[in-house]
Design goal:
2 copies of one chain form a homodimer. Chain A has 3 domains: about 150 residues, Orthogonal Bundle (Butyryl-Coa Dehydrogenase, subunit A, domain 1), CATH 1.10.540; about 130 residues, Butyryl-CoA Dehydrogenase, subunit A, domain 2 (Beta Barrel), CATH 2.40.110; about 140 residues. In chain A, about 55% of the residues lie in helices and about 10% in strands. In chain A, a hairpin with a 5-residue loop joins strand 8 and strand 9. In chain A, about 60% of the residues are buried. The model of chain A has no long low-confidence stretch (mean pLDDT about 95).
Chain lengths: ~600, ~600
Amino acid sequence: MYKAPVEDIFFTLKHVTGLDRVLGAGRFGDLSDDLAHAILSEAGRFATEEVAPLAEIGDKQGARLVDGKVKTPDGWAGLYARWAEGGWNSLAAPEEFGGQALPHQLLVATLEMWNSGAMGFAIGPTLTIGAIEAIATHASDALKQKYLPKMVSGEWMGSMNLTEPHSGSDLGVLKTRAERRDDGTYRIFGQKIFITYGEHDFTDNIVHLVLARLPDAPAGSRGISLFLVPKFLVNDDGSLGARNDAYCHSLEHKMGIHASPTCTMIYGDGKFGAEKGAVGWLIGEENKGLACMFTMMNNARLAVGMQGVAICEAATQKAILYARERTQGRGPGWKGDGMSPIIEHPDVQRMLLTMKAITQGARSIAYACAHAIDMVEVTSGADRGFWQERANLLTPLAKSIPTDAGVEVSSLGVQVHGGMGYIEETGAARLYRDARIAPIYEGTNGIQAIDLIGRKLPLSGGAHVRGFIGELKAVVEDVRKSNRPGFGHTADKLAIALADLDEATEWLLAAQGEGRIAEALSGATPFQRQFGLTLTGVYLAKAGLADAGDGKDEARVALARFAAENLISETTALKDRVVNGAASLAAARAALG
Amino acid sequence: MYKAPVEDIFFTLKHVTGLDRVLGAGRFGDLSDDLAHAILSEAGRFATEEVAPLAEIGDKQGARLVDGKVKTPDGWAGLYARWAEGGWNSLAAPEEFGGQALPHQLLVATLEMWNSGAMGFAIGPTLTIGAIEAIATHASDALKQKYLPKMVSGEWMGSMNLTEPHSGSDLGVLKTRAERRDDGTYRIFGQKIFITYGEHDFTDNIVHLVLARLPDAPAGSRGISLFLVPKFLVNDDGSLGARNDAYCHSLEHKMGIHASPTCTMIYGDGKFGAEKGAVGWLIGEENKGLACMFTMMNNARLAVGMQGVAICEAATQKAILYARERTQGRGPGWKGDGMSPIIEHPDVQRMLLTMKAITQGARSIAYACAHAIDMVEVTSGADRGFWQERANLLTPLAKSIPTDAGVEVSSLGVQVHGGMGYIEETGAARLYRDARIAPIYEGTNGIQAIDLIGRKLPLSGGAHVRGFIGELKAVVEDVRKSNRPGFGHTADKLAIALADLDEATEWLLAAQGEGRIAEALSGATPFQRQFGLTLTGVYLAKAGLADAGDGKDEARVALARFAAENLISETTALKDRVVNGAASLAAARAALG
C-alpha cells in the first residue's frame, strides 16, 4: 500500500529545487519551513489513509452512466467531500476568493500525493484548479464573484471542454458554435469529447469552461472564444436555478483511470431548457479564447507531469515491497537458508534502482518547474522575465519526462512482480494502465517536444537555455570538487551528458535558424528524452551534494552515481539521433507506404 | 483491421533466416517454396478473416467460470473447431500421429499470424503443441498411442502445469505430491496456479501435464517428475471414461488476454472420483521431470517470442492505418489544403518507422531461432551440434527481444492514436494490455538474460558466440562492399555496434571465468538488449541486401539505414552498463532500504 514519501518530497523542495528562496522572498508571509512541512505531512496522511485505499474499488467499479447521471464509485463522493473540507482544493487559489495562496511547489507536491493515491480521483480536482485559474485571470468581476468562492471551497467543481472528434491537438478547427444574445449572454451548440469529470455526483453544480466559435469569428485558432457554461444556472443569491442545456451523452471505456468519468458532452440540443442552446458567459474577450487557455497551460501541463511522478512513486514503492517479500531462487550473495528475497538478485536490483532514480529525476524536474512558477510570482522586472522563461523552458520537460517515466517505471513494476504483476489484484497492473494516458493528454509528448525545440530553445535568442545548461555544469563542478569517493565517475559521466546537450541544443538552434524545420522536427523527441535524462543525472547529483544529515546522504550519493554510471550514457546515442538522424528518417518515409 | 503480412513473412524466411537451406536438405520431401508460400497464404487468410475479427469480443467478454465450467467468449469454440479442422494444430507434429512434420519456421510463422489475430486465442493451441512435443519425446508408446492422435488432430487440447504460489521461476521448490499405485499409475495432489487453458469448452478432454514430487524424491529440482493427467480418463477404445479428480477452482482477473482462461487447478482434493487423488501416468523417468520440460523449453520460449512479434506487427499496422487517416495540424512538407494526415509529421514518422524496424528485427531474430531448430533436424554430427548451439544461443534472445519489443511497439501504437489510443474501441489499448504478459511468462526476460550470459555465451568455450558475431560482421562487410548509396552510414554504424558486442561479450566471459558472478549478473539485461539491437540492425541490413525484385528493395534498404542511424547507437551505452555498471549498482543497493 502506498505511503506518501513526505520526507523525500520535502527534501527535494528544500535542497534540489529551492523552496527556501521562494519562502524567503516574503510574499508568503509567515509560511515557514516547519509550516510547509506540516502541510505536506497532513496531505501525506490524507493521501495515504483516505485516497489510496479507494483506488482499487475506483478501478473496478469505474464511473457509470445511469439514467443520464454519472455515478462515481462507492465511497468516492464522500472522499471528495472530506478532501474539499480539508481545504485541499484551495491551496493555491487567490485569498480574495477564499484560497490560501500558497506556493505552487506545495500545490504540486500535494498533487503528487493525491495522484499516487488514486490518479482517477486527483484528475478531477486538478481540472477544477485549472478552471479557477482561468476564471480568476480572465473573467469579469461579476463572474468571479458568482463562481469562484464556491469553486475554491470545492462546493462546485469545474471542467475543461476543448476537444472535439476532429479537433484534438489542433484546436483551430473546432466547430462548437456560440451565438450572441441581447442580454450579453451567449448560447452554445456543439459536441465535446474526452471531457474529464464533465458530469459526476461529487458536487451539485459543475462549471464548464467551453471553447467555441462565434458566427463572425476569423478562421483558425484566432477565432475561438472561451465561455463559462454552468450545469445549473446560478441565481443572484447564489442558489441554483434552472438546468442548463448541457449534459453528458456517454462515457468512454478507457484502459485506465476508470473512476474518472470521460464524458461526451452535448451543448444546446434542446434536451434541457425552454430555449435551445446552452447559456454561456464570455470569459476574456471574444476570439481570444485560446490565449485565455494558454495562460494556464503551463500549470495544467505541470499538473499532468505530476501524475507521471505520482505513478512512478507508487509503482516503485509497490515493487520494492514485493521484492523484499517474494522469495525465489538465491541471489549471488545470499547466505540464508533456502530461497532469498528476489531483491537479492542483481537483475531485480537494477530494475528497482532504475525505478527509484527515474522517479526522483522526474520529481525534481517537475518541482523545478513549479519553483520557477513561484519565482515569477515573487520577483519583478528582469528577474521575473528570467523566471518566466525558466518556467516556459521547463514546462514541456515537466510534462513529458515524468509522464514517459510513469509508463516506463510502472512497466518495470509489473515486471518485478512477475506473473502477479499481470493479475489485477496486486495493483501493479492498474498503475501501468493508469499511467498510459499521461503522455497523451494535455498536449501529447510529441507536441511537448516540438514546443521545446521550436518555442523554448529560442527564448532570448538561445541565451536562456545556454544559461540553464551553464547552471547544470556548475553542479557538476561541485560534484567534482566534493572529492567524495561515493560519487564514483558521476562528474565525468555528467560532463559528457552536458557536452551532448550543448551539441544537440546548438544544432537545433542552428537548424531552425536556417529554416531546416523538418530536420529539426525529426529530432524533437530524442532531444526531449536527452534533456530529461541529463536533468535526471544532474538533479540526483545535486541531491547527493546536499548533506542533509538525515541518514540518507550516502544513499542519495549512491543513487546519483547509479544514474550517472548506468542510465544517462544513453544521451550520446540520443544526441546522435538529433544531429545525424533526420536524413535516414526522411529517406525511410517511403517504407511506410 | 489486421491483415496477415504473408509476403513480409515469406521474404524474411527466404532471404533473412534461410528457409531454402532447410528445404534443400531433403528432409521435407516435396515441400517447395511454392507450397510453403501457399501454406502461409492460407494461414494468413484464416488469421485475417477468422481469428482477428473475434479478438475484440474475446477481450470484452473474456473467459468466465460458470458453475464450475469455463465458458470461452461467443464464437471462440467454433473458431477453434474450424482452426483445428484446417489442420493448423498438426503442422509440425510427427507424421506417425497424424502430423504434417513441416519445418519449425513455418510453424512459427503461423503462430505469429494467429497471435496477431488474437493472442488470447493462440496461446491455447501453442501450449497444446508444447504438450504434444513433450509426450512425443518422453512418454511411453502406450501413452503416445492413446493420447497423441487426438491431440494432434486437435480433438483434445493440452495444458502445462508448472507454477505454484510459492514456486514460479524456481520450480525446485514445488510441493504438488505424487504417490505411486501398484498398477503403475500415480495419484496427484496439489494446487497449480496460472494454468493457461487449464479448463475450457473448446474440447471434450484436456490433457494436463503436471510437475509433481514423489514422497522419496531428492530435494530441489532433481526430485521433480512429470505426469500426464487427463481431465477425463480414457478407456482402451479411446472413448472417455470417468472424470478425473482435477478441476479449475477459479480464474485470474488479468490485465489482458482476457479470453485465455488462466486457471487455478486443484488436483486430488476428492471433488471427483471415488478415491481421492487425480490419476496420473509418468512421462519419462521418475525425478527427471524437469529434464523432460527442458527439451521443449526452447520451442516454448520461441513460441512466446512469436507473441511479441505478433503484437508488434498488429500494433504497427493499426498505427500506420490510423496515421494515414487521422488529420491534425500540417506536416512541414504538406502542400494540400487544410490539415494533413498525421503521418506527415516527422515525429509521427519517427514513431512509425521505429515500430516497423523493431517489428522486423524481432521477427528476424525469432525466425532465425526457428531456422536453427530446423537445421538441427536436417543435419547430423558436428553440424547438428553446431545448430543445436545456435538454437540454444538464440532462444533467450528470441524470447526476450520480441516480447520487450511488443511492449515498446504497442506503447508507441497507443501514442500514435493519441486520445483514441486510450479508448478501448480502437484496439490499440488491447494490444498494449495483451503484450505485457509476454516478457513475464515462460521465464521472465530477466531469467532469459541470465540464461544468455550464464549458459549460452560459454557454449564451446565462447567459440560459438564468437563465430556468430563473425557471421554478423560478414553481413556488415557485404553492406560496405555493396556501395549502395541508400545504405548511408549503415556499415559504419553496424561496425560500431559489433565492436561493442565483442567487448561486452568478452567482458562477460572473462568475468564469469574469474568467478565475478554478481558483476556479470548485473549486466545481463543490458547485454541482452544490446545483443538484440545489434541483431535487429544486422538482420535489417541483410534484408536490404537481398534484392528480391519485389518493388520493396529500396524501402528495405531505407529501413535498414533508419535502424542503423537512429536506433542501434544505443548499443554503446548498453555496453558501458555491462562493463562499467556493476560497481555503482552494488554501491546503490543500500538506497533500496
